[in-house]
Amino acid sequence: MILDQYPELYSGILLVIKVALAIIIPIIIFTIINKTIQKYKSYNSVSKGSLEILSKILRYLTFLIIILGILDVLGIDIHSLLVSVGIVSLAVTLAAKDTLSNVISGAIIILEKRFVVGDMIEIDGHKGIVQKIGFKSVELLYKKKYMVVPNVLFTTKPFINHTRNGYYAIYFNVTILNRYNFDEKISQLEKILDDTPSILKEPKYLIMIKNITTSGVDVKVKAYIEDPNMDTKTVSEIIKRIKREMVLDDMY
Question: Which of 95, 130, 148 is the last residue of a domain?
Fold first, then answer.
């Protein structure tokens, strides 16, 4: 064979092929992952800016893999190189540990879609509607109170997504004293809830007996609304109607 007669030519062609593969394979993998990321732009679960940051991180990572692959093909000792570079970067890595943790946690939130913009979530005593999901933090807003929660909390602590199913639960209590007809007052309460536009028909509200005392019956009402921002207003309107139409003394 011609290549057997020209071993240097064979070695050169083999080297070119290996270098080409070291470049092409990471690019193909990056292209596939990047196309998957671009699909998320059609959703409201994360800001487009955050997706662009993720795309840039993958681009730089791909470039680094290509460089290391070429160096390996050329016979350069990558292990020694990484050790020398690692000593320098160790201090930087430790200093950026919190930032790195938040970035990784942000990627997990985005990919797993644990919540989306507009959801009402609660974590570590903080409650609010998601305004923005970034790579370092999640921005919440609730009753004019603005909060920034580090992403790492969402991977290390339990949290509640109150609107995961597309609705938000509101609660209030009513005490029906013994001097009133219990069934009559419950029927009046049901009519008020049925006539309240912001209360969803499905899932249907629940009226539960919470406690029975010598003076009366404590009733807990659980109803569902679509917009979490309307919780206080909705409860206030219902209580006003109950006070006016049911003539109850005790409510909270």
Answer: 95
Strand order in the sheet with 120-123: 145-150, 137-142, 126-133, 120-123, 159-161
Q: Which one is predicted more confidently, 216 or 88?
A: 216
**90 and 124 share a domain?**
no
Output the domain CATH number for residue 45: 1.10.287
Burial class of residue 36, CB neighbours in 10 A (0-12, 13-18, 19+): exposed
Predicted confidence at residue 234, as pLDDT, reads: 92
Q: Is the CA virtual torsion 22, 25, 29, 31 positive or negative?
A: positive
- Total structural domains in the chain? 3
Residue 73 neighbours by CB under 8 Å, 6+ apart = 15, 18, 19, 22
| Average pLDDT over every residue of 157-163 | 90
Tokens of 213: 């005392």
160: β partners:
122
Longest distance between any two alpha carbons in the chain, whole Å: 111
Q: How far apart are CA 41 and CA 27, in angstroms?
A: 21
